[in-house]
Amino acid sequence: MIEKILEKIRQAEDKSEAEIKQAEETGILKIKQAEEAGKKLVEEVIKETEKEIENLTKKSQLDTAKKEESLKKKSEEEKNIIREKSAAKKNKAIDYLMKELGL
Q1: Using CA atoms, how far apart are residues 81 and 13, in angstroms rounded to an integer?
Q2: How far is the CA of 78 from the CAs of 54, 68, 69, 83, 90, in angstroms?
Q3: pTM of the entire predicted model
Q4: What is residue 13's predicted lDDT score, i.e. its pLDDT?
């Protein structure tokens, strides 16, 4: 009778140890899966950040090009205004001289 009780205790201990070992293995597996998921998440965040940086860089370059074009256009407009004013002054001077000379 004691033998049967001892055998049942051994079986319970073996079963308990097997369950503990399985739980440990399952826990280790879950930890590894969580680590992999974490690594993938970090990689995705890095890729998204790189894309965002690239897009911002492209946008910045485009904005800079637009500003340069706008400044160039404005500069040309200012040059044309100066030329027109200069031509108008020359024409007034010529008209004045022609009037003075009686031509």
Answers
A1: 100
A2: 36, 15, 14, 9, 18
A3: 0.51
A4: 84
